[in-house]
């Protein structure tokens, strides 16, 4: 799953080291980029986030994104 998420980050031209502990702020994300990330994740993984799951806590780090993705697409994706 991490590899698929990193692919999405790279499609947004995110540079540098991306790991589960990477902060979106440290990677240069702003609110618009986070919304682009949400859309790309939904398209790549074929699901839709519920509005209540699009929160700062769920999109603080790559690891927090992976945690919320498990709710939607399972661990083995």
**What is the first-to-last residue Cα distance?**
6 Å
**Total DSSP helices:** 3
Question: Averaged pLDDT, please?
Answer: 93
Number of strands: 0
Q: What is the CATH class?
A: Mainly Alpha
Structural class: mainly alpha
What count of domains describes the coordinates? 1
The global form is: globular
| Residue share in β-strands | under 5%
Give the CATH topology.
Answer: Non-ribosomal Peptide Synthetase Peptidyl Carrier Protein, Chain A
Query: Mind describing the biggest β-sheet?
Result: none
SSE string, helices as H and strands as E:
HHH
The CATH architecture designation is: Orthogonal Bundle
Radius of gyration: 11 Å
Helix content: 40-55%
List low-confidence stretches: none
CATH superfamily placement: ACP-like
Q: What topology does this entry show?
A:
Blueprint (H helix, E strand, L loop, with lengths): L1 H10 L19 H15 L16 H12 L4
Would you kindly provide a written description of the structure presented here, covering whatever features stand out?
The chain has 77 residues and is mainly α. The protein has one domain: Orthogonal Bundle (Non-ribosomal Peptide Synthetase Peptidyl Carrier Protein, Chain A). Helix 1 packs across helix 2.
Give a quick rundown of the structure.
The chain contains three helices and no strands. With 77 residues, the chain is mainly alpha-helical.
């Amino acid at each position: 799953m991490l590899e698929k998420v990193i692919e999405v980050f790279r499609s947004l031209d995110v540079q540098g080291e991306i790991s589960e502990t990477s902060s979106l702020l440290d990677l240069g994300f702003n609110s618009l980029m986070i919304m682009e990330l949400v859309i790309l994740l939904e398209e790549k993984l074929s699901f839709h986030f519920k509005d209540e799951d699009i929160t700062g806590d769920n999109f603080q780090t790559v690891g927090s994104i992976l945690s919320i993705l498990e709710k939607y697409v399972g661990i083995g994706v």
